[in-house]
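Board notes (copied after class):
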Amino acid sequence: MDGMLSQDEINALLSGMDLTDSGNVTEPAPDPEKELLSDMEKDAIGEVANISMGSSATTLYSLVGKKVNITTPVVTIAQWKNVLEEYLKPCVFIQIKYTKGLDGSNILVLREQDVKVITDLMMGGDGTNVEGEITELHLSAISEAMNQMMGASATSLSSMLGTVIDISPPESSLIDLTEYHDGADVSPFLGGDFVKIAFRMQIEDLVDSTIMQLYPIEFAKTIINTFMVQPEENVPEPAPMPEPAVTPAQPQAVMPDASQMSMPQMGMPNMGMPQMSMPQMGMPNMGMPQMGMPQMYMPPQAQMPQMAQGGVNIQPAQFQSFNSTTTIPGQENIGLIMDVPLEVTVELGRTTKSISEILDFAPGSIIELDRIAGEPIDVLVNGKYVAKGEVVVIEESFGIRVTEIIK
């Protein structure tokens, strides 16, 4: 066959080829995210973050007085360039260190605008006073908010992981990301791969943005291992089942022949049929024959205790009769507590101030109260409002003349 190769020549050519030559076979590059965290591990750290942020959202609601919604987290492996892509403007980095139960730290990243809104709400504002730059007052307020939020989160983690977890006071700082091309300048673990957990945070119509929580890889794995492998001593053992009560064997009834059995009287009139007395049957007169059941004597009034499941005796409760003439001894001894001291407080008035207004206080500042001059003032005993009165001067001391007793 001209121009054609024989089968022997084809086999010879194939046997001389190296099919595993690295130049001919290209293997796909390994996915670093799969190597660092598996899908199961990402789900575990996401569940931990979800429970933590759920408690944090409740705490933030109590601080700002607005409805707070934090959505389900998204867990990814990230690098510093990913943070730069999402946060172009200056943002607030809040570092949380664990001091008990866990050994490590993480960083919470908030947008500058979000911090201004939260701190304004904490100071009694409506969340719209966000002009100007972030000051030390903003950082101090957001640190306190994060301290309470992450404290609630640590409590939730303690219940979930079965160990006491505590944190140190968070440290807040304003960072211009354009000045940091390497994350290691901010925190050592940000110089390489780290775990990024992104949440969407909404505070009514004031805030709708993304917050991030950054974990070192090793610290995330520590949390995952603690979460996925619970110690056996934390698993409660099932309670032992109570053993049934053992009763002594009772003599069995002697069953008569079928030819000797007859129906007992069931309240029907006697139709002339002969009746066999119960002693002949060897059974007590219980109204119905008991087939193979042990004999049991029942008194006229059922006073025997009932047996509940597990052999527990149940008896009817017996109470002593009570009548209206019964007196309680010692009721007249109120004189025994006449010498107990009570704290009496006179309240001239009240007012509400924001943190910024309180920080502006100085000697000579005047605080206006919610009480009109000449209006009766309140008298409280152990914090309970009991009377009204007017201020008087007794020699060189102030006093109060009671004008009305509050019923």
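Comment from the instructor: The CA atoms of residues 379 and 385 lie 6 Å apart. The two ends are 124 Å apart (CA to CA).
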